[in-house]
Amino acid sequence: MKQLVLAASIFGLLACSPQGNAQLNDRELDTQYLENMGFTIESVKPSSVTGLYEVITNQGLIYVADDGKKLIGGRIYDITGSEPVNLSEEVVKEMRRTDVKTVADEAIVYQAEDEAYVVTVFTDPTCGYCRQLHTNIDSYLNKGISIHYLAWPRSGLQGSGYEQLKTIWCSADKGAALTAAKSDKRLPAASCDDPIAKHFALGNKFGVRGTPSMVLPSGEMIPGLVNADRLLEALEQAQ
Fold first, then answer.
1. Is 88 among the domain residues?
2. Number of other residues whose CB lies within 10 A of the CB of residue 165
3. Mind telling me which residue stretches traverse the membrane in this protein (predicted)?
4. Domain of 52: which CATH number?
5. Omega of the bond prior to 212 within 30 degrees of 0, cis?
6. Which of 39, 44, 109, 190 is most buried by a 10 A CB count?
């Protein structure tokens, strides 16, 4: 059932932005059917299952077969060991690790003095749990966990959260503006070529469904609020 829900969420977030066919091992995989559905194709390569191809799109990882004519929802597990291994999750984690680097210079950074880890957090100033995290941010910094904020307006690219995020990222002091917004203080007007839509699209690609969502250096994503002690434990286990 969880896999069916995941597949439905992918189709519900389609965006029209066609590209040309993807190159695959010196031959062309026909991506026209995916493009007709609104997927933007970023990469294609053979999966660990013969005849099945791993496709990274603007909405994350999907699988296709039969020369691009069949779309398969779900995840691939290696069940040869004592415990199933989610091979698809390893692909997704690599995708997140790579993509986070592309927006690193757009993040609002709270850096730990003795930095041991960097955690990227998708945030919305109207989210109560995001405010709770921000109020307690020193507890993360004191454990060597730097917090890099990206924007993910829960109501989409509209509404008060979206407008506040635009103002925050256009402010001269973004950190102060973020703190003010999460404390219900009025923000001075500011406008610029902001990255909010880009961050929102990236969050959707990563599988963000609410805020806060934390992306660890391993590429693992933790949905929801996790206190500093539990987050440090998760970071240590993910190494």
1. no
2. 28
3. none
4. 3.10.450.70
5. yes
6. 39
Q: Is residue 38 situated within a structural domain?
A: yes
Say whether 170 is catalytic: no
Q: Give the pLDDT of the chain (239 residues) as one tens digit per residue.
A: 333 333 333 333 322 222 334 444 434 788 999 999 999 999 999 999 999 999 999 999 999 999 899 999 899 999 999 999 999 999 999 999 999 999 999 999 999 999 999 999 999 999 999 999 999 999 999 999 999 999 999 999 999 999 999 999 999 999 999 999 999 999 988 889 999 999 999 999 999 999 999 999 999 999 999 999 999 999 999 87
> Any catalytic annotation for residue 154?
yes
Residue where a domain terminates, one of 57, 74, 91: 74
Active-site choice (96, 131, 154, 170): 154
Q: Are residues 133 and 187 both part of a single domain?
A: yes
- Whether omega for the bond prior to residue 46 falls within 30 degrees of 0, making it cis, is no
Q: Which of 96, 124, 131, 170 is catalytic?
A: 124
Count of domains forming the chain: 2
- The catalytically annotated residue of 96, 127, 131, 170 is 127
Among 96, 130, 131, 170, the active-site one is 130
Burial class (CB in 10 A: 0-12, 13-18, 19+), 45: middle
